[in-house]
Amino acid sequence: xxxxxxxxxxxxxxxxxxxxxxxAEMATWRNADEAVVALDRAVTELxxxxxxxAEVADQFGLVRVKDVRPAIxxxxxxxxxxxxxxxxxxxxxxxxGSARVGKSTLLQTISGLADDQIPTGSGIPVTAVRSRIYHTxxxxxxxxxxxxxxxxxxAYLQPRHEELGLPPAPTTMAxxxxxxxPSAGELEIKNAYASLLEDLRDxxxxxxxxxxxxxxxxxxxxxxxxDFDRLREYVAYPKVEEKRAxxxxxxxxxxxxxxxxxxFPHADVGEIxxxxxxxxxEVTVDADKHHVAGLxxxxxxxxxxxxxxxxxxxxxxxxxxxxxxxxxxxGFVSRRRDFVLIAxxxxxxxxxxxxxxxxxxxxxxxxxxxxxxxxVLEVDAKDRADVSAxxxxxxxxxxxxxxxxxxxxxxxxxxxxxxVVREDLVGLATEVRAMLKQVRGLTVGAAxxxxxxxxxxxxxxxxxxxxxxxxxxxxxxRQDPDYAAAVEAVYEDVLSWVRxxxxxxxxxxxxxxxxxxxxxxxxxxxxxxxxSRIRVEISRRFAQLDLFFHARVEEVWRQVADGLAGExxxxxxxxxxxxxxxxxxxxAADAAEPCEVMETSLGELLGLxxxxxxxxxxRVRPELDSLNLQVRDPVTGHESFQFTVAPTRDGxxxxxQIICELAEQSAFRIRVALLKESVLPGQVxxxxxxxxxxxxxxxxxxxxxxRQFARSYRDELWxxxxxxxxxxxxxxxxxxxxxxxxxxxxxxxxxxRS
Amino acid sequence: MTAPAEGTSLRIGxxxxxxxxxxxxxxxxxxxxxxxxxxxxxxxxxxDHMTERKILEQRAELEGWRLSKQFNPGALRGxxxxxxxxxxxxxxxxxxxxxxxxxxxxxxxxxxxxxxxREAEWEECRAFIANSTVLVVPADAAMLMETAGxxxxxxxxxxxxxxxxxxxxxxxxxxxxxxxxxxxxxIVCPVRTESYFADNGGRRDRSDELLEHVREVYRDVLKVIxxxxxxxxxxxxxxxxxxxxEFLSARWLPDVAGGHPHFSAKYRxxxxxxxxxPEISTAGIDDVLVLLARHLIDLRHRELDVTxxxxxxxANDWAAQAVQDLGAMRNVWNTVSGKRxxxxxxxxxxxxxxxxxxxxxxxLAGQLLRLAELGLGPRHREL
Lengths: 754, 383
Hints:
The complex is a heterodimer of chains A (about 750) and B (about 375). By secondary structure, chain A is α/β, with parallel strands linked by helices. Helix content of chain A is about 65%, strand content about 10%. A 9-stranded mixed sheet of chain A has the order 4-3-5-2-6-1-7-8-9, with helices on both faces. In chain A, strands 10-11 form a two-stranded antiparallel sheet. Chain B is about 45% helix and about 15% strand. In chain B, strand 3 and strand 4 form a beta hairpin. The interface between A and B is medium-sized, with 31 and 24 residues.
């Protein structure tokens, strides 16, 4: 391998070695894009979430997350170019220049191919398809990448339709086949674009020649062997004579790209390829843009061919435009002379023409300093040796020297641009995080909110119960008219019973008394028995006050439940009074964080009993003592009978009178004693509720247990709030995570500095 | 001086609303007065026929319910017109006695609402009470005890006329204060207390509770007496007015005229284990009698002491005059004219009067001492 070839190989290898890095960097940038998308989605969801506070939504509305995506896309494109550049297995040299300057001739000379593969001609443009010619020892073939209808439409039809102001180009083959283009003169168009309409008619007319190729669904056409010699059919414009035929074939329209592999005559050139750039100045839409795109993605350097021919031996304005386009394609390569070399094709030219061209180029391109802006080579495009010595060698030598530098410049330039975008990403993520800090207080974590709500609930319960206690306290220190009425009612009931002969009727009672006394031989047994019965019955009837007491207890339960319901209605489910308190007690026991003190206090309150027998009767019991036949003298301590009667009818009537009097007296005294205790029910109820309130609100465990209760039943207590808050919180968290992920990616990108 | 001279009456003022038992109290006093001072020769008895008749009428009524075992205090005839009970308190010494008057007036006169057209009569009653040496304030024990916790209790001041009693007590206390050198006696006397003591056959002692209610309801009356006549001794003497009866029940009956409701109490008669009719006994009345007797005899004692001193001073003056040296000529003349003899006779007479009065004073002092030895019963309190 020649020295040149070795150096070229080294360049290629060096590029290849950096490929993984570029690939990884691109992947990271794609990750960055995904991170941006995720951040945008997270921010959008947060803003749109109903429970997100308006201030938060407004804040995040100021962040234009997606605006950075085009810059990422551009960065990725640049890196793709770098990837493409470093991924090439050959050093690619573009051959450019106006039509008819000898590009194809030069390529034939370099590649050893003939007209059948690289068409040449005179007078009109010949090359219709950009071809890439690879030095491939031991092989001769052409691989033609085909358009499909859509890419054909995009490349050829739609641009012309737009330029001519026609409706959008047909979208299917069948539609294109039937499309009616305006006839000549039918459409008012600018002169410059008249050929575009002619092109459309010609292309449509030639459809049969390339239709089948479009329908290959992108499958390439490989030309081997003899077919290789038919390459011209696919890459050249029809000749003049061919255009006169009724069915003009324009297969080139279906060919997107042609890759030609053949061994170069100059076997020691190494891994190189030449790209035949389509001629400048052809009247096609966006032809120059296509040219630049092709140059940027395909070639490492360009040889601009200029021919010393009559009328062409000077540096024209079109040449200036061409250099401008080529310069645009230079990208991050710092020196123009590194990317574009000028080849003066002086093979068939006279000395004068050659001199004229040489001199003009020196003056107008290099400011009279040879090689100042561009290196200028002279060559006879047809002469293989000349091409080898005066073109290939210098060009390859130049590339061997400068490609590493150019590669570095391209990479550095790409990364410089990428760094700016990276900074933008960092700024975006930082801005979002800063916003998150600001709005944190607005969203408030669910846990904090429960805490705050529990505190307020604690206070509200205290206020409600305090109000109830004030009412109960006031009732506990004054006479209770309802209690007095209940006592009077029971008292009257007892009197009625007493006056009704103790339930038997006076006559029946006396009759029974007489009979019993006669049987017993005296009044003692009957009187004792009756007094006992009457004592028990009076006590039993007064115990009916339990109905009043129970009603009072139930009322207090109801009042307590009503007071608690203001805050706890969500868990009480419409239950009231005793049922509500029982439900609450069960909830306290079953809470995710059991509230034992609360449960106990509710249990005690529910266990409240105002009971005549246990609480009141002991106080009034002494009033029944007179309902005994035998009584104790309080002064002497002696037992004696209160009375005695004869076992006769008169005696029975007297006995009835005596016992009625004693019963009425006891009943009245019980009544008075009960009325003196009229504050007792109020005091008992007040004390019970006061204790309950102390435990529930002020005990050492109160605050903690209310918080626990709130946490356990927060969704019932405050329906919808925490789903929303949780959702808002989750979304805020998601934004935070997305911003962090983006920052992480930018840190990864930081490591890709040149 | 309130204590009248020999032949005039001391007054006992009894102030209370209608049907509180003033007449029954007086009757009880007299009945007890016959036997209360057994070891002292002190006696109290009616002083005139009208008083005797009045007392005997009521005694007949009370005897009737005793035998029938039906007691209805509401059935006792109330007082329609003022009547002055006249008593004699025999001191038990030297024939000394004192006349006592106690006015029984319609209790309705106390209440201004029921006094229409009888203002002059009421003023006469007020004047009698104001000039009394003793003030007795009866109180309805049943009304005080059986209305505790009752919503109608707020009617008590109006029904018991405590504001009017306070007014009269003020007049009396001021009058007493004007005679502050004399002892003053006020007795708060709950009546119909049979149900609240265990010393009379009752089975429960609620005496402390009764005292507490009296202090509460008559607080302002006591206060005004203390304020206007600080030297007054106020005594608390619950009295069983009729004996073996017990409070049974009560009702508040609305007043048809729209006034305060009426406290209607029922009583039962305690039976004896042997089935015999109960005996009338009036525990507590002895304390009232003893206090009255002490007070009145004390008054008389002071009066006589003043008289005795006066006589002694007069005797000394005459004696001094009889031996006075007025100079030779005057001495001779006084002797000649008989003046000295007269002075000597006068001195002797006054000395004898002084000795007599001093003996009475001493005698009454002895009675007072015996009365003091009688003591007061366990029901008594000094307020």
